[in-house]
């Protein structure tokens, strides 16, 4: 697709664990297994899944914080998969990241002013005065006040710290921000403030987001499209409302039904699918469909043949032999 | 009706250099036998301290606990350490957010559960061990005999939480205190654990106090809900009544902040302006008043009492005006 801002093609990330001395003791873990998707300019793609499904690893590969094992990452027409040095630095100006833990991702010894200015200094964006004005504007844009500029991270609450992290990510006017669980460490009322801030930034600045989260409600609030991951694979991809209202993959269906509803009247009528067991280890994935041991609809073909991610009649993609929709 | 637990005017304070800080500021509630009470609140609301105070588990030399906690008629505050020790893990058991808080990595799961059984009962080593396996089976661990022989770190997070619940159930507790038991778990595993907690009441006749920040978890699990803000209960009602007709503006704010999975997707979430007050700078009147859209002069000076019988609320907005205010809050 030519109009895609970000295009991921068969991205794979493997890790080797176990003894380095004995080749026989080594296990290969496919944390991300030949994943492909695109993100258009200004679009927000929500990436959901449970712990260990590979969603954070995928986010870190996209921002090149991790090297990929195979496959390609194309940003605005440029292949950035193996970029290094000055070229990679230039790429990163347009490709920023927001982290989950606002306590760990800000340097405790630096003032907010310096934290937000750092990317501008590294990338030589303007004179000292330009940078100072720019930082003041950024801090306002994320809902903080100018008196906050001279404070240290520990003087802020979690939500305010996350705002500082967002200001830093915005400093270089990126086209794409990878946000890895940006609100999951926050209380629900603060979480709502940050989601609203991100929604505003997305609209006003036309920034595209890869929004990684495990909370489907949060993803629904912010994402245009959703990709669901299970054991390193995207198993369903489509428009947010389409997927959440009528999931096609049995795992998506179970994931949605497991979310507790804050409404006892509706909770009483909802059909709950309680999955048995835990997700299998990526070190030892099942043969065939990775979800088949926990799936209520699995048949013989699911045990032997891994389903490919294919488009359904309603335009969404799913990797299932027995899709529930479309 | 006689209550299993009656907490009256509980205050948990800490001595600091700048004076006494009241983290839990006059909390009263009761729980009947076989009842599941959900306590909801955000970080710092005092919900965990309230429950830790019941078993005198706040490990801080500067803590001061006042008020009354009566369990089956016996006062627990100021009780002898030996009496509390027999209660802990016996008639009152507790599970935590992180199951590793309650497990040691150097003994097997089965040995740890059997140890607790032998402390509280006269069972032989062998009988305690087989009861441990039965309990692991009851909480739904696959292959319980093998699980009993494993070390905690060999189990997944959900399995560990099941093992801790099995340990908590080992002496048929009348009351189970569960502090954010599913917060660290994935949503599909959370659904399994919540189903297990609901089942406890039927199989073990346990009452449960479930502490959580997640309104959805409460809605699906609890019979009654208490909402805490800044160390106080601001609203308490049956789960059905609380969600059908929430009375307190803070509860409205919490419900509005939650992104829903169905219904209309609002372009922006409702938010509560500002942050909860620091505990040493709690305003003299209603603690929520600085953030409340419906604040009146009377809210500033005097602390609103928790009034009502079935549906209690600590808010002075008169009932007839509440519906109008709620409509405004929903529109905002």
In DSSP terms (H or I, runs of 4 or more residues), the helix count of chain B works out at 12
Instruction: Give the overall shape of chain B.
Output: globular
Strand order of the largest sheet of chain B: 6-7-8-3-9-10-11
Q: What assembly state would you assign to the polypeptide chains in this entry? A: heterodimer
Q: What would you say the CATH architecture of the domain at 4-81 and 207-318 in chain A is?
A: 3-Layer(aba) Sandwich
Helix content of chain A: 25-40%
Regions with little confidence, pLDDT below 50 for 5+ residues of chain B: none
Please tally the β strands of chain B and state the result: 11
Average of per-residue pLDDT values of chain A: 91
Strand-helix topology:
The complex is a heterodimer of chains A (326) and B (332).
Chain A: E1 4-17, E2 27-40, E3 44-48, H1 55-62, E4 70-75, E5 78-79, H2 85-93, E6 95-98, H3 112-122, H4 128-141, H5 158-170, E7 176-180, H6 188-205, E8 208-213, H7 216-222, E9 225-230, E10 233-239, H8 240-245, H9 250-258, H10 264-269, H11 300-304, E11 310-311, E12 317-318
Parallel strand pairs in A: 3-8, 3-9, 6-7, 7-8
Antiparallel strand pairs in A: 1-2, 1-4, 4-5, 9-10, 10-12, 11-12
Helix pairs in contact in A: 3-4, 3-5, 4-5, 5-6
Chain B: E1 5-16, E2 19-31, E3 36-40, H1 47-54, E4 63-71, E5 74-75, H2 81-87, E6 92-95, H3 109-120, H4 125-138, H5 144-148, H6 157-169, E7 175-179, H7 187-204, E8 207-212, H8 215-221, E9 224-229, E10 232-238, H9 239-244, H10 249-257, H11 297-301, E11 312-313, H12 319-331
Parallel strand pairs in B: 3-8, 3-9, 6-7, 7-8
Antiparallel strand pairs in B: 1-2, 1-4, 4-5, 9-10, 10-11
């Amino acid at each position: 697709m030519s109009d895609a801002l970000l295009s991921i093609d068969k991205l794979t990330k493997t890790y080797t664990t176990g003894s380095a001395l004995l080749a026989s003791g080594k296990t290969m873990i496919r944390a991300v297994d030949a994943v492909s998707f695109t993100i258009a300019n200004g679009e927000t793609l929500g990436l959901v899944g449970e712990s260990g499904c590979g969603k954070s690893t995928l986010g870190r590969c996209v921002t090149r914080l991790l090297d990929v094992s195979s496959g390609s990452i194309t940003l605005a027409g440029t292949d950035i998969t193996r970029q290094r040095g000055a070229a990679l630095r230039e790429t990163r100006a347009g490709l920023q990241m927001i982290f989950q833990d606002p306590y760990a991702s800000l340097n405790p010894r630096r003032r907010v002013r310096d934290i937000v200015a750092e990317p501008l200094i590294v990338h030589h964006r303007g004179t000292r005065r330009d940078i100072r004005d720019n930082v003041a504007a950024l801090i306002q844009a994320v809902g903080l006040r100018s008196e906050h500029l001279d404070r240290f991270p520990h003087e802020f609450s979690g939500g305010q710290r996350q705002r500082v992290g967002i200001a830093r990510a915005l400093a270089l006017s990126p086209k794409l921000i990878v946000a890895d669980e940006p609100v999951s460490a926050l209380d629900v009322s603060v979480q709502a403030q940050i989601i609203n801030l991100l929604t505003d930034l997305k609209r006003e600045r036309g920034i595209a987001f890869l929004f990684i989260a495990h909370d489907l409600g949060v993803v629904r609030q912010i994402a245009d499209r959703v990709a669901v991951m299970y054991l390193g694979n995207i198993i369903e991809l489509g428009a947010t409302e389409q997927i959440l209202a009528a999931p096609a993959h049995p795992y998506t269906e179970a994931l949605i039904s497991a979310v507790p509803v804050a409404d006892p009247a509706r909770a009483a009528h909802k059909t709950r699918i309680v999955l048995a067991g835990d997700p299998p280890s990526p070190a030892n994935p099942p043969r065939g469909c990775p979800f088949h041991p926990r799936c209520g609809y699995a048949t013989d073909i699911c045990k032997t043949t891994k389903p490919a991610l294919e488009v359904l009649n309603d335009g969404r993609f799913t990797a299932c032999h027995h899709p529930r929709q479309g | 009706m006689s209550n299993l637990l009656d907490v009256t005017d509980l205050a948990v304070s800490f001595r600091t250099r700048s004076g006494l800080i009241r983290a839990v500021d006059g909390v009263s509630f009761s729980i009947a036998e076989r009842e599941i009470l959900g306590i909801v609140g955000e970080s710092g609301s005092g919900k965990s301290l309230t429950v830790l105070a019941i078993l005198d588990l706040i490990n801080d030399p500067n803590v001061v606990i006042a008020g009354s906690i009566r369990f089956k008629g016996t006062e627990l505050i100021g009780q002898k350490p030996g009496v509390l020790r027999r209660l802990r893990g016996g008639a009152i058991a507790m599970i935590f957010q992180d199951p590793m808080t309650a497990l040691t990595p150097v003994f097997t799961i089965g040995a740890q559960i059997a140890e607790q059984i032998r402390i509280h009962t006269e069972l032989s080593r062998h009988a305690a061990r087989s009861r441990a396996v039965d309990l692991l089976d009851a909480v739904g661990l696959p292959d319980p005999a093998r699980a009993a022989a494993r070390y905690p770190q060999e189990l997944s997070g959900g399995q560990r939480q099941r093992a801790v619940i099995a340990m908590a159930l080992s002496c048929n507790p009348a009351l189970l205190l569960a502090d954010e038991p599913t917060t660290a778990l994935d949503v599909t595993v959370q659904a399994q654990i919540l189903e297990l907690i609901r089942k406890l009441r039927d199989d073990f006749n346990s009452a449960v106090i479930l502490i959580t920040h997640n309104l959805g978890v409460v809605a699906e699990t609890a019979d009654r809900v208490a909402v805490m803000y800044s160390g106080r209960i601001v609203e308490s009602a049956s789960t059905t009544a609380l969600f059908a007709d929430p009375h307190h503006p803070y509860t409205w704010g919490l419900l509005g902040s939650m992104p829903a999975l169905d219904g209309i997707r609002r372009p922006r979430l409702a938010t509560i302006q500002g942050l909860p007050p620091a505990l040493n700078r709690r305003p003299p009147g209603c603690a929520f008043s600085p953030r409340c859209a419906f604040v009146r002069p009377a809210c500033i000076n005097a602390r609103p009492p928790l009034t009502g019988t079935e549906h209690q609320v600590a808010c002075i907005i008169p009932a007839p005006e509440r519906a109008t205010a709620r409509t405004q809050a929903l529109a905002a």
